[in-house]
Amino acid sequence: MSENPASLRAPGLSLLHTSARLPADLLTREAWASLAAADVVQARRPGEPVVSAVIAAGLHVEVQDVAMPAEGLAGTLLDLASERAVIWLVSRDGDPDLTKALADESTRRAQAPSVRSIRGSWDPAGAGFLDLVWAMDRLRSPGGCPWDGAQTQRSLVPYLIEETYEAVEALETDARDDIVEELGDVLMQVVFLARIGAERADDPFDIDDVCAAIVTKLVGRQPGVFKNDEARRSGDPVQGWESAKAAEKPARSSPLDGIPAAMPTLERAVKILDRLRRAEADADLAELLATPIGASGTPTIGNRLLAEVYKAREVGVDPASELRDALRHLERRVVSGR
What we know:
Layout: H1 5-8, E1 12-17, H2 29-37, E2 40-43, H3 49-56, E3 62-63, H4 70-81, E4 85-89, H5 96-108, E5 115-119, H6 127-140, H7 146-150, H8 157-173, H9 176-197, H10 207-221, H11 223-226, H12 230-234, H13 237-248, H14 265-278, H15 282-290, H16 301-314, H17 319-336
Parallel strand pairs: 1-4, 1-5, 2-3, 2-4
Helix pairs in contact: 4-5, 6-9, 8-9, 14-16
């Protein structure tokens, strides 16, 4: 709800908070109205984006001495706000020392002016991702971290694999704090690799290209959601995804095309069997699994393992996840002595 114009001109102190991740001039209607009605607009750092934006809009901003202690600044602002409408442009760090000093000084005074907060802009969802992109760019740029600057896409592969397995461990054990940390580590590897990709001499790419590619894929493979295609929405979502994927990659002639050879063996077995089952090759698959691999004509351990993977997938069980759970249970028993 918008403020009454008269109340905007009433004596008091307003702390104007803004998002550091949005253009500084994208302020709410209430924020601009409050700025226009204020008798005094003050800030501590003249170079802050919001200060520049307010000045560019034709409003005067008084800059306080950066060296002034928070307690002294709080007293000065409250004295001004006793008789005038004052707006303080909060710095990007949130001015925590000043906020505390204002609370202490207001409590000490018998008749302190009103102090309120105005939210001039909010961080959009995903704004923290921009911080990660900024941090990685700083680390990779000249004057940043020598180790980060020396890495290549190839040298980061072991770290990407390791961080992925650590994320798997956190997810399967449902450790909330570990999940947050390990997903962050995986995300950092993605941003790191994209930052290196921007330096390629031939056909460079950056994090925006990476994000655009996955958004295009999601929208193209989910027309029932993004294009209001009711026929697709009511159908089998997995089959719809696979059909859209096949249309995107017409050069693939086998259901096994595109499965990475570097996948761990058990996960690769699951992927191959799932692909064959979706391709409605169950009859042929059962025959293939029954065919001995060894020269002796008897089923090998590999035969039997693959058959067990097939049985697990038929009942919707992920054998790799089950095996990891069993190993964790075994490890706990060994460590506990039972």
